[in-house]
Amino acid sequence: MNLLASMRYLVALDEHRHFARAAQACFVTQPALSNALRALEEEFGAAIVKRGRTFVGFTDEGARLLASARRMLHEEQLLRQDMSSVHGQPQGRLSIGVVPSAEPIAARFAAMLHAKYPGTTPVVRSMSSQEIETGLEELTLDMGLGFIERVRPGVGSLRTLAQYTEHYFLVRKANSVGTQGIQFGEPMPWQAAAALPLCLMTSEMHNRHIVDAAFAKAGAPVRPVLETNSLLTLALSAVSGAVCSVMPGALVGAVRAYGELEIHPLTEPEVNTPIGFMVLASERMSRTLDAALTLAQDAAWLRHAAVHSGLLHA
After folding, report:
1. Are residues 194 and 252 in the same domain?
2. How far apart are CA 61 and CA 41, in angstroms?
3. Are residues 32 and 107 in the same domain?
4. Which residue has the higher pLDDT, 51 or 186?
């Protein structure tokens, strides 16, 4: 039995929650994956997977084995990167979980990381804050970019590296005929914005909790006419002119190419949300993660991102 391969199958089954999709992700047939998992059960003398007509979940023994599988695969990745990385040039994948509002910044960071270290392969995944925190703790992510205010100092196993402060804007179709590019309007109180037809992120997103809290503090709880977990939908709904959107500065910078838009900084209250990288607090890290943190600590990369967005505050 190839123990590492079987551990990969186990982790893939947890990620996909479906036998066929897990097998496809591992480039094996479903019978091969199922047979490998049964061999694991025979090897350890315990049921691992709860089986029904479809995947049901893991037994208690399976959950413990799954945690060990993640640690084994993580150690294998560290070893491979140690063996293949030479002369300060790391080699390997780096999995980055990012909250949707920070996607434009994560994309620039990943591109700059690869440009500086061509042997790295950043993998950027859009995820909720909770999914990022869970992924870091379960070793399925190497680093996250998101709302570091959620991580309380001295609590848990995550450490943070602050990057910039997120501010919010009301974005809508410009009234001026023939307007080209983004036009800056006067600051707008959150209370005034609440009276407009709004597209907001869905309730499971931490961004929505921040926005809802600002509206509540302004004495104007809001009911959006449209909700989405897609940044593209959030942006294009404002471009359409039918609704307005509340967007963070990084996203506004990303849609500046769209014509006939105007933005209004939202005030009363002022909302300043710190965004930063998160990693598992561990003494040992991969070569690619070490390189990424070195770049993250270099203020030059963030100045570059700020120039492109025009709306960041480091």
Report:
1. yes
2. 10
3. no
4. 186
